[in-house]
């Protein structure tokens, strides 16, 4: 499980939101620590902060399919 979490963290840092959900599920089952889940949340939020732009926000507001978060 430790190895899986490490790989999931790599994916989360790359913006894979579904992977964040996997880590949440693992945490809820008691197979990941609160610290690991917190780090995953922070990594994903950092990713979103890096890609945020006015143009993306306008596109996301224009149509549901354009959401990047």
Task: Describe the protein in words.
- With 69 residues, the protein is mainly α.
- Helix content is 74%, strand content 0%.
- The protein is built from four helices and no strands.
- It has helices at residues 2-13, 17-28, 34-51, 54-62.
- Helix 1 (2-13) runs antiparallel to helix 2 (17-28), helix 1 packs parallel to helix 3 and helix 2 (17-28) runs antiparallel to helix 3.
- It starts with a helix and ends in a 7-residue tail after the last helix.
H/E order of the elements? HHHH
Which class best fits the helix and strand makeup? mainly alpha
Contiguous low-pLDDT stretches (5 residues minimum) are none
Mean pLDDT over all positions = 91
Q: Give the helix level as a range of percent.
A: over 70%
Strand content: under 5%
Question: Got a strand count?
Answer: 0
What is the rounded Rg? Answer: 14 Å
Task: Characterize the overall form.
Answer: elongated
Count of helical regions? 4
Distance between the termini: 27 Å
Q: Report the biggest beta sheet as strand number plus sense, adding barrel if it closes.
A: none
Short note summarizing the structure:
The protein contains four helices and no strands. It has 69 residues and is an all-alpha fold. Helix 1 runs antiparallel to helix 2, helix 1 packs parallel to helix 3 and helix 2 packs antiparallel against helix 3.
Fold blueprint:
Elements (H helix, E strand, L loop, with lengths): L1 H12 L3 H12 L5 H18 L2 H9 L7
Helix pairs in contact: 1-2, 1-3, 2-3
């Amino acid at each position: 499980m430790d190895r899986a979490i490490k790989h999931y963290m790599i994916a989360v840092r790359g913006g894979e939101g579904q992977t964040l959900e996997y880590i949440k599920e693992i945490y809820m089952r008691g197979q990941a620590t609160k610290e690991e889940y917190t780090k995953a949340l922070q990594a994903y939020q950092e990713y979103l902060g890096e890609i945020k732009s006015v143009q993306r926000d306008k596109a996301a507001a224009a149509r549901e399919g354009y959401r990047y978060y």
